[in-house]
Design goal:
With 220 residues, this protein is of the alpha+beta class. The chain is 21% helix and 25% strand. It has helices spanning 43-51, 69-80, 87-104, 147-154, and strands at 8-10, 15-18, 34-37, 59-65, 108-116, 131-138, 143-145, 164-166, 172-176, 188-189, 200-207. The protein has an 8-stranded mixed β-sheet, covered by helices on one side. Strands 8-7-10 form a 3-stranded antiparallel β-sheet. It is globular. The two termini are 23 Å apart.
Length: 220
């Protein structure tokens, strides 16, 4: 059995999981369509999110160099009138943006931070991007399908509830999209939460529109 400190590739799902940040680098492998960093949010980060009242974010979106994400996000908090110190979240978002940009061989990223309370994007779909990073800072994580269930979904057969996989709160996933050459794009959705009254604080990172992703030297 593999150590919990090692990344493990799950063949039918084409996903790579690991408990260290470098698990995200596996997205460059041809045999991997979803790289997951399984992490528990640090207590300080969770506390900072609560203290900053980031539930009032609603929707923030901008493009910036990956190494300026923290600065730009803090400015966005200020302009949106968010009270409290959002620096811990901003620093974490920049860490993720830099990892994403490094793997795709790009400089600029598109950041979206959203407070989700409804069932938007509840239908399973694959994104028209080369790749997308998704993490949920609070609330239920993104749901996705393995290759077999995704193929049946494309054929019009709804997935059985037992086939729906889900990221945990704090997990980070890099999902290959329809524009990644030769990849099987990951079919996923936002979890339906309206009936439960739950809320999510969601971070999505895409390549900036000016540079859709160069995808340098995929490993095998």
């Amino acid at each position: 059995m593999a150590s919990k400190h090692q990344a493990v590739r799950t063949e039918p799902v084409r996903a790579w999981r690991g408990v260290q940040a470098h698990a995200l680098d596996a997205i460059l492998r041809d045999a991997v369509d979803l790289a997951i960093w399984e992490r528990a949010l640090a207590a300080g980060l969770s506390a900072a999110i609560g203290q900053a009242d980031l539930g009032g974010v609603e929707f923030l979106r901008f493009e910036t160099p990956a190494d300026r994400v923290a600065e730009e996000l803090c400015l966005a908090f200020l302009e949106a009138g968010i009270e409290g110190d959002g620096w811990a979240l901003a620093e974490d978002a920049q860490l993720l943006a830099c990892a994403f940009a490094r793997n795709l061989g790009i400089d600029d990223v598109a950041i979206r931070l959203e407070h989700v309370t409804g069932d938007a994007c509840r239908r399973f779909h694959a994104d028209y991007v080369s790749a997308r990073l998704i993490t949920t800072y609070s609330g239920p994580g993104t749901q996705w399908l393995d290759a077999e269930a995704a193929a049946r979904h494309e054929a019009g057969i709804a997935p059985h509830p037992t086939e729906i996989r889900q990221l945990r709160e704090g997990d980070v996933g890099i999902f290959k999209g329809r524009r990644w050459p030769g990849a099987t794009s990951i079919v996923h959705r936002s979890p339906p939460i309206l009936a439960s009254g739950a809320a999510r604080l969601l971070l999505v990172i895409d390549p900036a529109r000016s540079q859709p992703g160069q995808i340098m030297g995929a490993a095998r």
